[in-house]
Design goal:
Elements: H1 34-43, E1 55-61, E2 64-71, E3 73-75, E4 80-81, E5 88-89, H2 95-107, H3 133-138, H4 146-152, E6 161-162, H5 163-172, H6 188-202, H7 206-215, E7 224-225, E8 240-242, E9 248-250, E10 255-256, E11 263-265, H8 267-279, H9 284-291, E12 295-296, E13 302-303, E14 310-314, E15 317-326, E16 329-336, E17 341-347, H10 354-366, E18 397-402, E19 405-412, E20 415-420, E21 425-430, E22 435-438, E23 443-449, E24 455-460, E25 463-466, H11 475-478, E26 483-487, E27 492-499, E28 502-506, E29 512-519, E30 522-525, E31 531-536, E32 542-549, E33 552-560
Parallel strand pairs: 6-10
Antiparallel strand pairs: 1-2, 1-17, 3-4, 5-11, 7-11, 8-9, 12-13, 14-15, 15-16, 16-17, 18-19, 19-20, 20-21, 21-22, 22-23, 23-24, 24-25, 26-27, 26-33, 27-28, 28-29, 29-30, 30-31, 31-32, 32-33
Helix pairs in contact: 1-10, 2-6, 2-9
Length: 565
Protein backbone atom coordinates (compact mmCIF):
# COMPACT_ATOMS: atom_id res chain seq x y z
CA UNK A 1 0.00 0.00 0.00
CA UNK A 2 1.32 3.37 -0.93
CA UNK A 3 2.13 6.00 1.67
CA UNK A 4 2.05 9.61 0.53
CA UNK A 5 2.81 12.91 2.25
CA UNK A 6 1.35 16.24 1.34
CA UNK A 7 3.97 18.99 1.46
CA UNK A 8 3.19 22.01 3.65
CA UNK A 9 2.30 25.14 1.73
CA UNK A 10 2.67 28.84 2.27
CA UNK A 11 0.97 31.83 0.68
CA UNK A 12 3.90 34.11 -0.05
CA UNK A 13 6.75 33.52 -2.51
CA UNK A 14 10.21 34.78 -1.60
CA UNK A 15 11.60 34.18 -5.09
CA UNK A 16 12.06 36.57 -7.96
CA UNK A 17 11.65 35.16 -11.44
CA UNK A 18 14.91 33.49 -12.37
CA UNK A 19 17.09 35.13 -14.97
CA UNK A 20 16.67 33.73 -18.46
CA UNK A 21 19.99 31.91 -18.49
CA UNK A 22 20.66 29.11 -20.92
CA UNK A 23 21.27 25.54 -19.82
CA UNK A 24 24.90 25.30 -18.80
CA UNK A 25 27.34 22.50 -19.43
CA UNK A 26 30.67 22.91 -17.69
CA UNK A 27 33.76 21.70 -19.50
CA UNK A 28 35.59 20.10 -16.61
CA UNK A 29 38.89 18.34 -16.14
CA UNK A 30 38.94 14.69 -17.08
CA UNK A 31 37.11 12.79 -19.79
CA UNK A 32 33.35 12.97 -19.62
CA UNK A 33 31.80 10.07 -21.41
CA UNK A 34 29.03 11.36 -23.64
CA UNK A 35 27.02 8.20 -23.17
CA UNK A 36 26.94 8.73 -19.40
CA UNK A 37 25.77 12.32 -19.64
CA UNK A 38 23.16 11.30 -22.21
CA UNK A 39 21.88 8.64 -19.81
CA UNK A 40 21.74 11.22 -17.03
CA UNK A 41 19.69 13.45 -19.31
CA UNK A 42 17.33 10.55 -19.97
CA UNK A 43 16.73 10.11 -16.24
CA UNK A 44 15.28 13.64 -16.09
CA UNK A 45 13.48 13.59 -19.44
CA UNK A 46 10.00 13.52 -17.93
CA UNK A 47 10.63 16.87 -16.18
CA UNK A 48 12.61 18.52 -18.97
CA UNK A 49 9.73 20.33 -20.62
CA UNK A 50 8.30 23.84 -20.64
CA UNK A 51 5.31 23.09 -18.38
CA UNK A 52 7.18 21.27 -15.62
CA UNK A 53 9.45 22.08 -12.70
CA UNK A 54 12.61 20.04 -12.61
CA UNK A 55 16.09 19.95 -11.13
CA UNK A 56 19.71 21.01 -11.32
CA UNK A 57 22.32 18.26 -11.11
CA UNK A 58 26.03 18.37 -10.33
CA UNK A 59 28.39 15.39 -10.52
CA UNK A 60 31.91 15.28 -9.06
CA UNK A 61 34.46 12.61 -10.00
CA UNK A 62 38.18 12.34 -9.28
CA UNK A 63 38.53 15.83 -7.87
CA UNK A 64 36.62 17.72 -10.57
CA UNK A 65 33.10 18.71 -11.52
CA UNK A 66 32.47 16.52 -14.56
CA UNK A 67 28.86 17.44 -15.31
CA UNK A 68 26.25 19.95 -14.25
CA UNK A 69 22.98 20.62 -15.97
CA UNK A 70 19.48 21.97 -15.52
CA UNK A 71 16.18 20.33 -16.42
CA UNK A 72 12.70 21.82 -16.44
CA UNK A 73 11.71 25.25 -15.24
CA UNK A 74 12.41 27.41 -12.21
CA UNK A 75 9.27 29.45 -12.81
CA UNK A 76 6.35 28.06 -14.78
CA UNK A 77 4.47 31.32 -15.12
CA UNK A 78 7.31 33.01 -16.97
CA UNK A 79 8.83 29.88 -18.52
CA UNK A 80 12.26 30.48 -17.00
CA UNK A 81 14.54 27.43 -17.25
CA UNK A 82 16.54 25.86 -14.46
CA UNK A 83 20.31 26.18 -14.81
CA UNK A 84 23.28 25.31 -12.60
CA UNK A 85 23.10 28.95 -11.45
CA UNK A 86 19.53 28.59 -10.09
CA UNK A 87 19.31 28.69 -6.27
CA UNK A 88 17.13 26.08 -4.55
CA UNK A 89 16.01 25.65 -0.95
CA UNK A 90 17.65 22.32 -0.09
CA UNK A 91 15.77 21.83 3.20
CA UNK A 92 17.50 19.30 5.49
CA UNK A 93 20.61 19.05 3.30
CA UNK A 94 21.46 22.26 5.20
CA UNK A 95 22.33 20.16 8.27
CA UNK A 96 25.76 19.22 6.91
CA UNK A 97 26.69 22.90 6.73
CA UNK A 98 25.69 23.22 10.39
CA UNK A 99 27.65 20.04 11.12
CA UNK A 100 30.88 21.39 9.62
CA UNK A 101 30.38 24.70 11.45
CA UNK A 102 30.18 22.86 14.78
CA UNK A 103 33.13 20.62 13.90
CA UNK A 104 35.27 23.65 13.10
CA UNK A 105 34.40 25.30 16.42
CA UNK A 106 35.19 22.04 18.22
CA UNK A 107 38.62 22.02 16.55
CA UNK A 108 39.10 25.63 17.68
CA UNK A 109 38.25 24.67 21.28
CA UNK A 110 35.15 26.87 21.36
CA UNK A 111 32.67 23.98 21.61
CA UNK A 112 32.75 20.38 22.79
CA UNK A 113 30.37 17.54 21.88
CA UNK A 114 30.10 16.87 25.63
CA UNK A 115 28.94 20.39 26.46
CA UNK A 116 25.47 20.84 27.94
CA UNK A 117 23.49 23.00 25.51
CA UNK A 118 22.31 25.08 28.49
CA UNK A 119 25.89 26.35 28.81
CA UNK A 120 25.21 28.41 25.69
CA UNK A 121 21.42 28.60 25.69
CA UNK A 122 20.30 28.79 29.34
CA UNK A 123 16.66 29.28 28.29
CA UNK A 124 16.49 25.61 27.26
CA UNK A 125 14.57 23.92 30.10
CA UNK A 126 16.36 21.77 32.65
CA UNK A 127 14.97 18.28 32.01
CA UNK A 128 16.96 16.67 34.83
CA UNK A 129 19.62 15.23 32.52
CA UNK A 130 21.84 17.36 30.28
CA UNK A 131 21.27 17.54 26.55
CA UNK A 132 24.71 17.69 25.00
CA UNK A 133 25.93 19.17 21.73
CA UNK A 134 26.56 15.57 20.67
CA UNK A 135 22.94 14.62 21.42
CA UNK A 136 21.76 17.42 19.16
CA UNK A 137 24.17 16.45 16.36
CA UNK A 138 23.22 12.76 16.36
CA UNK A 139 19.45 13.19 16.98
CA UNK A 140 19.51 11.57 20.40
CA UNK A 141 18.28 14.55 22.45
CA UNK A 142 14.65 13.62 23.07
CA UNK A 143 13.54 17.10 21.97
CA UNK A 144 10.32 17.28 20.01
CA UNK A 145 10.60 17.86 16.26
CA UNK A 146 9.31 21.34 15.47
CA UNK A 147 7.21 20.66 12.29
CA UNK A 148 4.83 18.28 14.04
CA UNK A 149 4.84 20.20 17.31
CA UNK A 150 3.98 23.51 15.65
CA UNK A 151 1.17 21.80 13.76
CA UNK A 152 -0.19 20.50 17.08
CA UNK A 153 -0.06 24.06 18.40
CA UNK A 154 -2.43 25.18 15.67
CA UNK A 155 0.15 27.27 13.84
CA UNK A 156 -0.76 28.16 10.28
CA UNK A 157 2.00 26.32 8.43
CA UNK A 158 1.31 28.55 5.43
CA UNK A 159 2.64 31.53 7.34
CA UNK A 160 6.12 32.58 8.51
CA UNK A 161 8.14 30.16 10.65
CA UNK A 162 11.27 31.57 12.26
CA UNK A 163 14.11 30.43 14.48
CA UNK A 164 12.72 32.51 17.34
CA UNK A 165 9.41 30.67 17.10
CA UNK A 166 11.21 27.32 17.28
CA UNK A 167 13.34 28.42 20.25
CA UNK A 168 10.19 29.57 22.06
CA UNK A 169 8.63 26.17 21.38
CA UNK A 170 11.65 24.54 23.05
CA UNK A 171 11.37 26.85 26.08
CA UNK A 172 7.79 25.64 26.62
CA UNK A 173 8.52 21.92 26.25
CA UNK A 174 7.61 20.24 29.55
CA UNK A 175 9.11 16.77 29.11
CA UNK A 176 11.39 14.98 26.66
CA UNK A 177 10.23 12.21 24.36
CA UNK A 178 12.98 10.08 25.93
CA UNK A 179 16.05 10.58 28.12
CA UNK A 180 19.02 12.07 26.21
CA UNK A 181 21.11 9.35 24.59
CA UNK A 182 18.57 6.57 25.10
CA UNK A 183 17.14 6.57 21.58
CA UNK A 184 17.71 7.94 18.09
CA UNK A 185 14.82 10.05 16.79
CA UNK A 186 15.37 12.54 14.00
CA UNK A 187 14.72 16.06 15.24
CA UNK A 188 15.12 19.22 13.22
CA UNK A 189 14.89 21.13 16.49
CA UNK A 190 18.35 20.00 17.60
CA UNK A 191 19.99 21.61 14.58
CA UNK A 192 18.17 24.89 15.19
CA UNK A 193 19.66 24.91 18.70
CA UNK A 194 23.09 24.22 17.20
CA UNK A 195 22.76 27.26 14.93
CA UNK A 196 21.81 29.36 17.94
CA UNK A 197 24.81 27.99 19.86
CA UNK A 198 27.17 28.85 16.97
CA UNK A 199 25.83 32.42 17.04
CA UNK A 200 26.30 32.62 20.81
CA UNK A 201 29.88 31.34 20.72
CA UNK A 202 31.04 33.40 17.75
CA UNK A 203 29.18 36.62 18.47
CA UNK A 204 27.86 36.62 14.89
CA UNK A 205 24.55 35.54 13.42
CA UNK A 206 24.61 32.02 12.03
CA UNK A 207 24.08 33.49 8.57
CA UNK A 208 27.00 35.91 8.89
CA UNK A 209 29.34 33.28 10.35
CA UNK A 210 28.64 30.67 7.66
CA UNK A 211 29.00 33.26 4.93
CA UNK A 212 32.38 34.46 6.21
CA UNK A 213 33.79 31.06 7.18
CA UNK A 214 32.24 28.60 4.72
CA UNK A 215 30.79 30.22 1.63
CA UNK A 216 33.12 33.11 0.82
CA UNK A 217 36.36 31.09 1.20
CA UNK A 218 34.99 28.50 -1.24
CA UNK A 219 33.74 31.06 -3.76
CA UNK A 220 30.11 30.09 -3.10
CA UNK A 221 28.70 33.46 -4.13
CA UNK A 222 25.12 32.29 -4.55
CA UNK A 223 24.64 30.43 -1.28
CA UNK A 224 22.99 31.83 1.84
CA UNK A 225 21.27 30.86 5.06
CA UNK A 226 17.84 32.45 5.00
CA UNK A 227 17.03 34.11 8.34
CA UNK A 228 14.08 36.23 7.20
CA UNK A 229 10.85 34.56 6.05
CA UNK A 230 10.00 37.56 3.87
CA UNK A 231 13.39 37.71 2.15
CA UNK A 232 13.51 37.79 -1.63
CA UNK A 233 16.14 35.36 -2.89
CA UNK A 234 17.10 36.52 -6.37
CA UNK A 235 16.67 34.06 -9.24
CA UNK A 236 15.62 31.16 -7.01
CA UNK A 237 13.42 28.31 -8.18
CA UNK A 238 9.81 28.39 -7.06
CA UNK A 239 8.54 25.08 -5.72
CA UNK A 240 5.70 23.03 -7.17
CA UNK A 241 3.62 19.97 -6.34
CA UNK A 242 1.88 17.68 -8.85
CA UNK A 243 -1.80 17.94 -9.69
CA UNK A 244 -4.05 15.84 -11.89
CA UNK A 245 -3.23 15.15 -15.54
CA UNK A 246 0.47 15.98 -15.21
CA UNK A 247 -0.08 19.57 -14.12
CA UNK A 248 1.56 21.37 -11.18
CA UNK A 249 0.60 24.01 -8.64
CA UNK A 250 2.79 26.36 -6.66
CA UNK A 251 3.79 25.42 -3.09
CA UNK A 252 5.54 28.43 -1.61
CA UNK A 253 7.38 28.72 1.69
CA UNK A 254 8.03 31.31 4.37
CA UNK A 255 10.42 29.17 6.39
CA UNK A 256 13.57 30.59 7.97
CA UNK A 257 14.70 27.81 10.28
CA UNK A 258 18.45 28.24 10.14
CA UNK A 259 20.51 25.27 11.23
CA UNK A 260 18.03 22.58 10.26
CA UNK A 261 17.02 23.92 6.86
CA UNK A 262 16.45 27.17 4.93
CA UNK A 263 19.70 27.06 2.95
CA UNK A 264 19.61 28.36 -0.63
CA UNK A 265 22.32 27.07 -2.94
CA UNK A 266 23.01 26.58 -6.65
CA UNK A 267 24.31 23.42 -8.31
CA UNK A 268 27.50 25.31 -9.17
CA UNK A 269 28.09 26.20 -5.54
CA UNK A 270 27.15 22.69 -4.43
CA UNK A 271 29.93 21.39 -6.68
CA UNK A 272 32.40 23.63 -4.84
CA UNK A 273 31.06 22.36 -1.52
CA UNK A 274 31.43 18.71 -2.53
CA UNK A 275 35.00 19.24 -3.75
CA UNK A 276 35.89 20.67 -0.35
CA UNK A 277 35.40 17.26 1.24
CA UNK A 278 38.45 16.14 -0.73
CA UNK A 279 40.59 19.25 -0.46
CA UNK A 280 39.56 20.23 3.10
CA UNK A 281 40.36 23.80 2.10
CA UNK A 282 37.69 24.99 4.51
CA UNK A 283 37.46 23.29 7.88
CA UNK A 284 40.53 21.11 7.59
CA UNK A 285 40.76 17.33 7.45
CA UNK A 286 40.23 16.84 11.19
CA UNK A 287 36.90 18.66 11.19
CA UNK A 288 35.72 16.81 8.07
CA UNK A 289 36.71 13.46 9.55
CA UNK A 290 34.82 14.41 12.72
CA UNK A 291 31.67 14.95 10.63
CA UNK A 292 31.79 11.31 9.56
CA UNK A 293 31.96 9.82 13.06
CA UNK A 294 28.77 7.95 14.02
CA UNK A 295 26.91 8.75 17.20
CA UNK A 296 26.40 6.33 20.12
CA UNK A 297 23.51 5.64 22.42
CA UNK A 298 24.01 5.38 26.17
CA UNK A 299 24.09 1.59 25.89
CA UNK A 300 26.83 1.71 23.27
CA UNK A 301 24.75 1.04 20.16
CA UNK A 302 25.95 2.91 17.08
CA UNK A 303 23.87 5.62 15.43
CA UNK A 304 24.49 5.82 11.69
CA UNK A 305 24.38 9.61 11.66
CA UNK A 306 27.32 11.97 11.95
CA UNK A 307 27.48 15.77 12.01
CA UNK A 308 24.53 16.55 9.72
CA UNK A 309 25.09 13.55 7.43
CA UNK A 310 23.73 10.04 7.19
CA UNK A 311 26.28 7.22 7.20
CA UNK A 312 25.50 4.26 4.96
CA UNK A 313 26.83 1.82 2.39
CA UNK A 314 27.04 1.84 -1.39
CA UNK A 315 28.05 -1.50 -2.91
CA UNK A 316 30.39 -2.19 0.00
CA UNK A 317 31.88 1.32 0.17
CA UNK A 318 31.06 3.90 2.86
CA UNK A 319 28.47 6.39 1.67
CA UNK A 320 27.74 9.80 3.17
CA UNK A 321 24.36 11.22 2.22
CA UNK A 322 21.39 13.36 3.19
CA UNK A 323 18.05 14.29 1.70
CA UNK A 324 15.84 17.33 2.06
CA UNK A 325 12.10 17.91 1.66
CA UNK A 326 10.07 21.04 2.31
CA UNK A 327 7.16 22.63 0.41
CA UNK A 328 7.73 21.44 -3.19
CA UNK A 329 11.53 21.28 -2.83
CA UNK A 330 13.29 17.91 -2.91
CA UNK A 331 17.06 17.45 -2.72
CA UNK A 332 19.59 14.71 -2.21
CA UNK A 333 23.38 14.70 -1.84
CA UNK A 334 25.51 11.57 -1.73
CA UNK A 335 29.25 11.00 -1.60
CA UNK A 336 31.33 7.83 -1.98
CA UNK A 337 34.78 8.98 -0.80
CA UNK A 338 36.57 5.74 -1.71
CA UNK A 339 35.49 6.20 -5.32
CA UNK A 340 36.11 9.96 -5.29
CA UNK A 341 32.53 10.42 -6.44
CA UNK A 342 29.68 12.71 -5.41
CA UNK A 343 26.35 13.77 -6.86
CA UNK A 344 23.76 16.35 -5.81
CA UNK A 345 20.24 16.83 -7.12
CA UNK A 346 18.40 20.05 -6.29
CA UNK A 347 14.74 19.97 -7.31
CA UNK A 348 11.62 22.12 -7.23
CA UNK A 349 9.29 19.25 -8.20
CA UNK A 350 7.49 17.70 -5.24
CA UNK A 351 7.10 14.35 -7.04
CA UNK A 352 10.78 13.82 -7.83
CA UNK A 353 12.55 10.87 -6.18
CA UNK A 354 15.90 12.59 -5.80
CA UNK A 355 17.35 9.76 -3.74
CA UNK A 356 16.55 7.11 -6.34
CA UNK A 357 17.86 9.28 -9.16
CA UNK A 358 21.11 10.01 -7.31
CA UNK A 359 21.74 6.28 -6.83
CA UNK A 360 21.08 5.64 -10.53
CA UNK A 361 23.62 8.34 -11.46
CA UNK A 362 26.15 6.79 -9.09
CA UNK A 363 25.57 3.40 -10.72
CA UNK A 364 26.19 4.95 -14.14
CA UNK A 365 29.46 6.64 -13.23
CA UNK A 366 30.84 3.91 -11.02
CA UNK A 367 29.89 1.01 -13.29
CA UNK A 368 27.65 -0.77 -10.82
CA UNK A 369 24.51 -2.67 -11.63
CA UNK A 370 21.41 -1.24 -9.95
CA UNK A 371 20.75 -2.82 -6.59
CA UNK A 372 18.18 -5.58 -6.83
CA UNK A 373 14.94 -4.82 -5.03
CA UNK A 374 13.96 -7.11 -2.18
CA UNK A 375 12.02 -10.20 -3.15
CA UNK A 376 8.33 -9.47 -3.52
CA UNK A 377 5.19 -11.39 -4.19
CA UNK A 378 4.47 -12.02 -7.86
CA UNK A 379 2.87 -9.14 -9.75
CA UNK A 380 -0.07 -11.35 -10.79
CA UNK A 381 -2.23 -13.21 -8.29
CA UNK A 382 -1.73 -16.91 -7.66
CA UNK A 383 -4.46 -19.18 -8.92
CA UNK A 384 -7.83 -18.23 -7.51
CA UNK A 385 -9.83 -20.81 -5.59
CA UNK A 386 -13.55 -21.29 -5.29
CA UNK A 387 -14.56 -19.83 -1.95
CA UNK A 388 -17.82 -19.48 -0.09
CA UNK A 389 -18.75 -15.78 0.17
CA UNK A 390 -21.10 -16.65 3.01
CA UNK A 391 -18.03 -17.05 5.25
CA UNK A 392 -16.63 -13.61 4.49
CA UNK A 393 -18.78 -11.48 6.77
CA UNK A 394 -16.34 -12.02 9.63
CA UNK A 395 -13.59 -10.38 7.54
CA UNK A 396 -15.45 -7.09 7.10
CA UNK A 397 -14.25 -4.12 9.13
CA UNK A 398 -11.30 -1.83 9.71
CA UNK A 399 -7.79 -2.98 10.68
CA UNK A 400 -4.96 -0.88 12.11
CA UNK A 401 -1.77 -1.38 10.08
CA UNK A 402 0.19 1.42 11.79
CA UNK A 403 -0.71 4.67 13.57
CA UNK A 404 -2.93 6.64 11.22
CA UNK A 405 -2.72 3.91 8.54
CA UNK A 406 -5.90 1.85 8.42
CA UNK A 407 -7.21 -0.82 6.05
CA UNK A 408 -10.96 -1.23 5.58
CA UNK A 409 -12.42 -4.42 4.12
CA UNK A 410 -15.86 -4.11 2.52
CA UNK A 411 -18.04 -6.29 0.34
CA UNK A 412 -19.68 -5.56 -2.98
CA UNK A 413 -21.86 -8.53 -3.83
CA UNK A 414 -19.57 -11.56 -4.01
CA UNK A 415 -16.43 -9.41 -4.18
CA UNK A 416 -14.26 -8.33 -1.22
CA UNK A 417 -12.66 -4.89 -1.52
CA UNK A 418 -9.62 -3.45 0.31
CA UNK A 419 -9.17 0.27 0.88
CA UNK A 420 -6.21 1.75 2.74
CA UNK A 421 -6.18 5.25 4.18
CA UNK A 422 -6.49 7.87 1.41
CA UNK A 423 -6.44 5.25 -1.34
CA UNK A 424 -8.91 3.75 -3.80
CA UNK A 425 -10.70 0.46 -3.31
CA UNK A 426 -9.06 -2.60 -4.84
CA UNK A 427 -10.40 -6.08 -5.56
CA UNK A 428 -9.33 -9.04 -3.42
CA UNK A 429 -8.95 -12.46 -5.08
CA UNK A 430 -9.43 -15.51 -2.81
CA UNK A 431 -6.50 -17.92 -2.91
CA UNK A 432 -7.61 -19.92 0.15
CA UNK A 433 -10.40 -19.73 2.72
CA UNK A 434 -8.56 -16.96 4.64
CA UNK A 435 -6.03 -15.59 2.12
CA UNK A 436 -6.82 -12.98 -0.52
CA UNK A 437 -4.41 -11.59 -3.10
CA UNK A 438 -4.61 -7.84 -3.85
CA UNK A 439 -3.03 -7.32 -7.24
CA UNK A 440 -2.71 -3.56 -6.73
CA UNK A 441 -0.57 -4.23 -3.65
CA UNK A 442 1.35 -7.14 -5.16
CA UNK A 443 0.78 -9.07 -1.94
CA UNK A 444 -1.72 -11.19 -0.06
CA UNK A 445 -3.83 -10.37 2.97
CA UNK A 446 -4.41 -13.20 5.45
CA UNK A 447 -7.26 -13.08 7.96
CA UNK A 448 -6.62 -14.78 11.31
CA UNK A 449 -9.49 -16.44 13.20
CA UNK A 450 -9.69 -17.46 16.83
CA UNK A 451 -11.03 -20.91 17.77
CA UNK A 452 -14.41 -19.27 18.17
CA UNK A 453 -14.33 -18.26 14.51
CA UNK A 454 -13.99 -14.56 15.32
CA UNK A 455 -11.49 -12.67 13.16
CA UNK A 456 -9.16 -10.69 15.43
CA UNK A 457 -6.47 -9.42 13.03
CA UNK A 458 -4.96 -9.75 9.58
CA UNK A 459 -1.42 -10.22 8.30
CA UNK A 460 0.01 -8.06 5.51
CA UNK A 461 3.72 -7.94 4.58
CA UNK A 462 4.75 -8.89 8.11
CA UNK A 463 2.35 -6.44 9.76
CA UNK A 464 0.03 -7.88 12.39
CA UNK A 465 -2.97 -5.55 12.08
CA UNK A 466 -5.63 -5.79 14.82
CA UNK A 467 -9.28 -5.45 13.89
CA UNK A 468 -11.01 -2.39 15.32
CA UNK A 469 -14.20 -2.94 17.29
CA UNK A 470 -17.10 -1.01 15.70
CA UNK A 471 -18.99 -1.01 19.01
CA UNK A 472 -16.32 1.39 20.29
CA UNK A 473 -17.70 4.05 17.93
CA UNK A 474 -21.22 4.27 19.34
CA UNK A 475 -22.38 7.81 20.21
CA UNK A 476 -22.74 6.87 23.87
CA UNK A 477 -19.13 5.67 24.08
CA UNK A 478 -17.71 8.58 22.11
CA UNK A 479 -19.55 11.12 24.29
CA UNK A 480 -17.13 10.38 27.12
CA UNK A 481 -14.31 11.99 25.14
CA UNK A 482 -16.15 15.05 23.85
CA UNK A 483 -14.97 18.34 25.34
CA UNK A 484 -12.18 20.89 25.56
CA UNK A 485 -8.56 20.08 26.38
CA UNK A 486 -5.86 22.60 27.35
CA UNK A 487 -2.15 22.10 26.59
CA UNK A 488 0.06 24.17 28.86
CA UNK A 489 3.03 23.36 26.65
CA UNK A 490 1.38 24.49 23.42
CA UNK A 491 -0.80 27.18 24.98
CA UNK A 492 -3.83 26.00 23.02
CA UNK A 493 -7.26 24.50 23.59
CA UNK A 494 -8.28 21.54 21.42
CA UNK A 495 -11.98 20.80 21.06
CA UNK A 496 -13.17 17.25 20.40
CA UNK A 497 -16.70 16.54 19.23
CA UNK A 498 -18.66 13.96 17.25
CA UNK A 499 -18.83 14.50 13.49
CA UNK A 500 -20.17 11.98 10.98
CA UNK A 501 -20.41 9.44 13.77
CA UNK A 502 -16.71 9.72 14.68
CA UNK A 503 -14.64 11.54 17.27
CA UNK A 504 -13.30 14.59 15.49
CA UNK A 505 -11.47 17.88 15.74
CA UNK A 506 -12.17 20.76 13.38
CA UNK A 507 -8.97 22.32 12.12
CA UNK A 508 -8.51 26.07 11.72
CA UNK A 509 -8.66 25.52 7.99
CA UNK A 510 -12.22 24.28 8.43
CA UNK A 511 -11.37 20.67 7.55
CA UNK A 512 -12.22 17.84 9.92
CA UNK A 513 -9.72 15.43 11.44
CA UNK A 514 -11.48 12.19 12.36
CA UNK A 515 -10.29 9.63 14.91
CA UNK A 516 -11.11 5.92 15.00
CA UNK A 517 -10.93 3.83 18.20
CA UNK A 518 -7.92 1.51 18.10
CA UNK A 519 -7.75 0.29 21.69
CA UNK A 520 -8.93 1.01 25.20
CA UNK A 521 -9.10 4.84 25.38
CA UNK A 522 -6.94 5.04 22.26
CA UNK A 523 -7.78 6.62 18.88
CA UNK A 524 -5.91 6.89 15.57
CA UNK A 525 -6.38 9.81 13.19
CA UNK A 526 -7.49 8.85 9.70
CA UNK A 527 -4.54 9.38 7.36
CA UNK A 528 -2.52 11.65 9.64
CA UNK A 529 -0.33 9.41 11.80
CA UNK A 530 -1.64 11.02 15.01
CA UNK A 531 -2.53 8.93 18.06
CA UNK A 532 -4.65 10.05 21.03
CA UNK A 533 -4.42 8.24 24.37
CA UNK A 534 -6.92 9.23 27.07
CA UNK A 535 -6.47 9.00 30.84
CA UNK A 536 -9.30 8.44 33.33
CA UNK A 537 -9.55 9.24 37.05
CA UNK A 538 -10.67 6.70 39.70
CA UNK A 539 -14.28 7.61 38.90
CA UNK A 540 -13.63 6.55 35.27
CA UNK A 541 -13.99 10.11 34.01
CA UNK A 542 -11.74 11.19 31.12
CA UNK A 543 -9.38 13.85 32.50
CA UNK A 544 -6.47 14.04 30.05
CA UNK A 545 -5.37 13.15 26.54
CA UNK A 546 -1.83 12.63 25.26
CA UNK A 547 -1.20 13.29 21.57
CA UNK A 548 1.65 11.64 19.68
CA UNK A 549 2.95 11.54 16.11
CA UNK A 550 6.01 10.06 14.41
CA UNK A 551 8.52 12.51 16.00
CA UNK A 552 6.47 13.82 18.91
CA UNK A 553 5.34 11.83 21.92
CA UNK A 554 2.75 12.39 24.60
CA UNK A 555 1.99 16.09 24.44
CA UNK A 556 -0.40 16.54 27.35
CA UNK A 557 -3.83 18.17 27.16
CA UNK A 558 -5.85 18.54 30.37
CA UNK A 559 -9.63 18.45 30.14
CA UNK A 560 -11.14 21.80 31.03
CA UNK A 561 -14.53 23.44 31.20
CA UNK A 562 -14.64 26.70 29.28
CA UNK A 563 -17.22 29.39 29.99
CA UNK A 564 -20.08 29.36 27.52
CA UNK A 565 -20.32 32.39 25.26
Amino acid sequence: MRRQMTAPRSNTSRCLAASALGICLLAAAGDVRARDTAKVDQLFAQWDRADSPGAAVVIVKDGAVVYQHGYGYANLEHRIPITPKTPFDVASVAKQFTGLSVAMLVQQGKLSPDDDIRKYLPDVPDFGKPITIGNLLHHTSGLRDWPETLRFSGLDMKGPITLDMILEMVRRQRELDFAPGEEHQYSNTGYNLLAAAVAKVTGQSFRAWTDANLFQPLGMKHTLVCDNPAEVVANCADSYAPRDQGKFHRVDSQLSAQGSSSLFITAEDMGRWLLNFETARVGGKAAIEMMHQPGKLNGGAKVDYGFGVGLGDYHGSPMISHGGSWAGYRSYVMRVPEKRFAVAILSNAGNMDTHGLAVKIADLYLGNSPAKPPAQSPAKPPAAVKADPATWDAFLGTYRLRPGWLLTITREGDQLMAQATREDKFKMTPISDTNFFVEAYGAAVEFVRENSGEVTHLLYRGINAPKLNPSDSTPARLAAYVGDYWSEELQIVAHLEIHDGKLANRQRSGTWLHFLPSGADRFDAEGMGIVLEFTRNPASEVTEVKASASRVRHIRYTRVTLPKS
